[in-house]
Every structure is written in structure tokens, then in C-alpha cells.
User: Fold Pyruvate kinase from Nitrosospira briensis.
Amino acid sequence: MDVTSMSRWTRTKIVCTLGPATDAPGVIERLIESGMDVARINASHGDHADHAKRIQRVRHAAQQCDQPVAVLIDLPGPKFRLGDLPDGCCKLVEGSIVMLAEEGDTADAAGDRREGSSFLPVRNPELLAALRAQERVFLADGSVELKVKIAASISNRVQCEVLIGGTVRSGSGINVPESALNELVPTDDDRRHLAFAVSQEVEWVGVSFVQSASDLARVRALLPSGEQPLLMAKIEKRRALANLDEIVEAADGVMVARGDLGVETDLAEIPIVQKRIITVANAWARPVITATQMLESMVEHEHPTRAEVTDVANAMLDGTDAVMLSAETAIGRFPIAAVKMLHRVLAATEAVHRISESCEPKDAGPLADKLHPYTSGFAKDALNVAACQLAVRAGARAVVVSIPSMAGALTIARFRPDVPLVMITDSGRLYRTLSLVRGVAPLFSTALDGVELQPCIAQAREWLFLQGLAQPGDQAVLLSVSGLPGNSGGEADTLQLVRMSR
Assistant:
């Protein structure tokens, strides 16, 4: 019997950040069963030993659950962070005084507290030296705001007033939008984490604080030849927005990193910025993740707010490939409930909304309009367009594709037909990588033959029947790369409409 993995199908994907809250036995399995498609490792927290254990658990759990789950490792980038706090967190009260000091500088820390100030360690001494009086300092994705009162002196400590209070945790990010400090991507830490990511054979690497295509080129130059992780450009700096097209073109995927974006840019602009990034990513056929505070209240509470579920639905309607949970699953009290809620909201929204990117049955205009002006044009994609349009006109239940590469998959997925894109591959890495792409149902087979199409439809048919997405007598569109001479680019060149039967 053919060795074929039968994954479930969801249109919009779910990314979950792993952390202490997911380390208990059985939690990762339950995350996958609840809807997790991509497991994210934040290299800014923890060590490689912990990360390796979590990746191993994900691989084992995915195999047990018979699901494709990609692993995404986020590089820290040139990010300023708090050091380790004595109790893991600290509550800052509006109007109080806080002292920023180099991590490890514990002398007189108790005295600082007696004088009524909180003592916060900072991992980056160069930041302390650069801060100037009256500068604003944002902590924890901008939820806490400080103002510098006294800049660093001989002791290299900075006294600040708390303008907006809140809770900060060990490793919380520090943003200083007015600072001229800029470190090139990748940092020395990034290089170390990238080597680890390659050794773990992860599918995606998130490159933080990308500001130009050259940042991505420097990271890509460090990757070995052969199979390597794809690069996810995290858009979180104002300069990145100015260079958005060139960054998206150079990247393999994009993340709307709203945490730092909300600090580096005007908070009021974030909804429009999000829509713009998603639109550009869609036009370039790059998978895009919308991240940060999707269900933030579920870090502490079992149910989200109405505003949060609306935010999730709107991200899906904007055209995002995936939505991401951060603290909700990494350190939250209800990681499983958060994933289930995300899945419910996405399913409910998709059930009643005919996706704006879907193929229209009346003419090919909307599909032609999706072709980015910088791509090669409509002719190269004609068969992909025809497959998606035929699925709608014929009432087919799926578009089935034997896929040789990620690039080939994305040239089809960009048109987003309102039926499953069943993509069959004999590459384990590609099978997992595709789990991030909207609308795609990856199937893995060791018996795939690019010339013989019958195994493709047989495998897809069984999956569709199993999922309840089709029944005997329904039709499917079969799109394949034939492997004929002259087709070295891997473009689809065979199109069939087939009826499925037992």
C-alpha cells in the first residue's frame, strides 16, 4: 500500500509559539489536534538544549497525529531586552521611578528599591550609554512607557519615570524609536542561532528587524547549499515599510510583527499597515503571518475579548495565510483553549464568507488582476488560472497537484480557489513547509510519480472522502508537472477534470 499521510484541511493556518506552558506531557499533541500547523521557537528566550527538546517533541507528536507541522525559529535580531528579573516579572506603577542598569550590576540594587525605585537589568550596555534625557523607552511591545530623567553617568545607570505602567517580564523587549543605534542583521547571536536552526532541519527561519533586501541576502549567504530553511522576513521597522516590495521579493515569507511595529510606527496606522503588508505579500505569492496579541487576554483568562476575535477574523479577511499566538501558548494559562478559540473563529468566518481571492465563475478578470506587475505575466500562469477557474465552473471539490517545489506550489496557491488545494509531494521537508500556506492540504507519498497521474487522484480521493469534503461521483481538477523535456522550470503543464469513485 502506498505510504501516504492524510492531513486535515484548514484554509487559514495557525502558528503557536512554544514555551514553558507547552512543555507538559501531551500538550503539543493537543495543540496539533486543536489546529496548530506551525510550531514557533523564539530564540530570544531559552537555550538550544530546551529548543532541541521542543523541536523533537513537535516532530514526534506530528508523526503520531499524522499531520504536517512546520517548525519556525525566530532569530532575535538587533533587539534590546531586559535581563532576568528576580521573580520573573515586575509590575511598574505609573509615576514611579525605575532604574535601568547593566545586567549583572546588582550592587546597591537593594538600596535602589529602598529609595522607592525599581531596578531593571538590561542586556545591552550600549543602549544605556546611548540613552539621553527626555527620550521615551517602551517595554513589552509598547505596553509600558518610560521617560528618561537622568542619563547614564559613571555608574552606567539610567533613571526613568514610568509614564504608562504595567507588568514586564524577564527578556521583555526594549524599544527606543528615537535612538540612532542600529546594528546590522544578522548579529553574532543570529549566526549562532541560525547554525542551530540548520542543524535541526527546521522549515522556516524568522529574520527579525529586516530593513532592506540586503539584510536577507546576508542571512541567506550563511546557509549551506542544498536543502535549507526558508527565510521569513519580519516587518517591524518603519524603514522596512519604505522598502517593502524589495524585502518581500527577496524573502520566502513575511510576518506582520505588530508588537514592534506598534512602537516603531504610529499605533493608529497599524491596521492600514497590516493590510498593506498582507496585500504586497499576496501579490508576490509569499506566505504571510499576522502576529502579536491576537488573543492576548487569554494569557490570563479562559475567554478572549470581542475585539480580539474580531481582529482574528479581520486578519483572515485581509488575506493572511496564518495567524500566530505568542504568549498565549508560550507562557499562557490556557494554551489549548487559545488554539481551539482561534480555530473556531477562523472556521466560523470562512464558513460564511466567500473568500475575496476566490476564482469567479463568470470570467477570468479577477484572477488576471492578481498577477503582480513585476512578475512575468499572465501567460506563464495560464494553466494555474485555468485550473482554479475550472474548479469553480465545474463545481469540483478540489484542485489536486503533484508538486515538485515550494515555488511551484506558491504559483498555484496565489490564486486561492475556494476549494482545497491538495498538494502531493514525496519530499518530507516540502510536505511540512506547505503547512503554512493558506488553502493548501499537503499530502505525503513515497510512491509519487510525476508522469503517472493515477496515484495522485487515488490518494487525494481517499483524503477528501475521509475529511468529508467530497463523496463518490464528485469531480476534482488534476494539475501536474509531467516531467516532459523542456519543462525544467517545474511549471504545471497537464490539466484534467476527473470524477472520483471508490
User: Anything to note?
Assistant: The longest helix spans residues 48-65. The chain has a mean pLDDT of 86. The domain at 365-499 is CATH 3.40.1380.20 (Pyruvate Kinase; Chain: A, domain 1).
